[in-house]
Amino acid sequence: MTKYLRTTSSRHPKLTALYSIGKSVQGRDLWVMVVSASPYEHMIGKPDVKYVANMHGNEAVGRELMLHLIQYLVNSYETDPYIKWLLDNTRIHILPSMNPDGFEVSREGQCDGGQGRYNARGFDLNRNFPDYFKQNNKRGQPETDAVKEWTSKIQFVLSGGLHGGALVASYPFDNTPNSMFQNYASTPSLTPDDDVFKHLAITYSSNHPVMSRGVACKAGTPAFNRGITNGAEWYPLTGGMQDFNYVWYGCMEVTLELSCCKFPPASELPKFWEENRVSLVKFLAEAHRGVHGFVMDENGNPVEKAALKVKGRDVGFQTTKYGEFWRILLPGVYKLEVYAEGYLPREVDLMVVEQHPTLLNVTLHPAKRNDNLYRHPTVGDRLGPGPSPSYHSQHSSPHTNKPASDGGIFSSITSGFNNFVSNIFG
Question: Where in this protein does the record put region Disordered (predicted)?
Answer without folding.
Answer: 371-407
